[in-house]
Amino acid sequence: MADIQLTRDFKVSPSRLFEVITQKAELARWWGHDGMTIPDHALDFNRLGPWHAVMIGAEGGRYHMSGQVTHVSPPHSVGFTWGWHDDTGARGAESHVTLTVSATDGGARLTIDHRDLPTPEVAARHEVGWCGPMVRLARYLAQNDTQSSKGVIKMANYLFIYHGGGGMPESKEDGEKMMAHWMSWFGEMGDAVVDGGNPVGMSKTVSAKETVDNGGANPTTGYTVVKAASIEAACKLAKGCPMVVNGTGSVEVAPIVEM
């Protein structure tokens, strides 16, 4: 068996954070990953009993999970069992999750303890998997404005355009490591992530004279939208991008002009 633990800090009160991670109407707003829909669910961690969620990925894949809520201790913690269903509907190995909320100087901290996962490899995949919902939770909780000692600072949105990146990973393990680095960076940015974005395929460049289909001199490989107080602050966030850190690519940063 293997266990994982993740922590994330949010600029909300502990009671507000507990509400968002337990109430049915709130859970459905951040559960899952960008691009997913949840056509069928009983996401309600505010009471003991069964829960389930069926998620459909952007590529059409179906992901079915279910369990039992085993304890609810407002406004501190909630626990539930967790199991994935295969294509036949059969439920696989059961693990246990505890979400714990604690106060911090700046708001509240969420600690995720996911225990009794069958192997270290499965645990590593779940550690990466939890990062996506944490980004969505931060985005859901985020306000459009942030307070400063001088008043209200309007946060603008910035487009991150990725170039390069070293291509596709050579193995499944390399792919999981790469994904873990990206999700860790997204987690560090927290509620600054407005839209996690996606990778993109080879582009074509259209001009009055011709259409070039080789992606150009510096092909775009993906995008993300973040919010920041200035373009300098956005560039500081971009410096943490995994492909900037490892030297395999670059990030173009541009302000999005509201019309």
Keywords:
single chain; 259 residues; alpha+beta; Alpha-D-Glucose-1,6-Bisphosphate, Chain A, domain 4; Alpha-Beta Plaits; seven-stranded antiparallel sheet; four-stranded antiparallel sheet; 6 helices; globular
Structure characterization notes:
The protein is of the alpha+beta class and 259 residues long. It folds into two domains: 2-141, START domain (Alpha-D-Glucose-1,6-Bisphosphate, Chain A, domain 4, 2-Layer Sandwich); 147-255, 2-Layer Sandwich (Alpha-Beta Plaits), CATH 3.30.70.1060. Helices cover 26% and strands 42% of the residues. The chain contains six helices and 15 strands. The chain has helices spanning 14-22, 24-30, 120-141, 172-189, 231-238, 242-245, and strands at residues 2-10, 37-41, 49-56, 62-73, 77-85, 95-104, 107-117, 145-148, 151-154, 156-164, 193-199, 205-206, 211-212, 220-228, 249-255. A seven-stranded antiparallel sheet has the order 1-7-6-5-4-3-2. It has a four-stranded antiparallel sheet with strand order 11-14-10-15. Strands 8-9 form a two-stranded antiparallel sheet. Strand 6 and strand 7 form a beta hairpin. Helix 3 runs parallel beside helix 4 (172-189). It is globular and about 65 Å long. The termini are far apart.
